[in-house]
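D-3-phosphoglycerate dehydrogenase
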Amino acid sequence: MPKILTPAIAAAGGYGYEMDALERLGAEIVECAPNEAAFIAAAGDADAIYMKGMKLTAAMIAAAPKAKVITCASVGVDYIDVVAATARGIPVTNCPDTFIEEVADHAMMLLLATHRRCIEQDRMVREGRWGEGRPQLNSVPRLMGQTLGFVAFGRVARLVAIRAKAFGLRLMAYDPFVDELTMSALGVVPASLDEVLAQSDFISMHAPSTPDTGKMLTAKHFAKMKPTAIFINTGRGPTVDEAALIAALESRTIAGAGLDVLEQEPPSPDNPLLRMPHIILSPHNASASARFDQARKRRAGQEMALVLSGRWPMSCVNPTTLPESGLRRWQPYAMERGPNS
């Protein structure tokens, strides 16, 4: 009977969805307290590790010598020591495509709401400043014909491109891991990062959080954007130098931002972003919908069942081959496999 070890974090509703795929294997999901010491004490006979947000360190992975797979019920895997897992031949799986439609909708919502100054317009009505609404929008260009540039062009960005095309936006993207034909098939012009930053009226960030993408966008990048540009981020907060973003917004180097993710979550009460009228924020919930838990839990169960049956998972994020695993196939983890990407 395969044993799957998981830290007891927000396990409301049990594991029925995961067991849809695991039940035929006779597997059981065993909980431990959500701390490193408890995990290490319980991990010796675990055949699989199921993570839902708690940090998984190299020491914790080493304490599970029988583990055949580490499964995350999320898109991002930045809380997993993937390098340590790879060194031990353990595939790390995620859920990169179970709720990408929701994230794409959210990115498009932030674009439209920031462009049409939705929150500011709402406040004008509520505060008795009705007459200020039209003059503000009289200075805003029409959306059709504006340029939307993508930084990283993974699954979510591609769905945003489909939505944005219907609004008449010109589309361009920077992603060194995606071939030009994939972009051109969606009407997207491949470009360098500098070209995307300089030409775009909206910049939509979709890079995953990896060691290579930390603070990928800094002050020098915001300086290359148009003063009318609006920055959208539904990927990961650490991919952006938040202090540089704040400085760019305060100085009006760029015009505004729509952010679902931040460098520190939740933000500290003194974060200047909370006081800016030309910013729209959401609490890292772009993927949320009524089907969120059901979809990701079923996918997690399927991934664990595949590996425990000796087959390759649907989504593997390890950056190198897994010579010790005995599994038959390797898929690289590149920018296109990102967050909410």
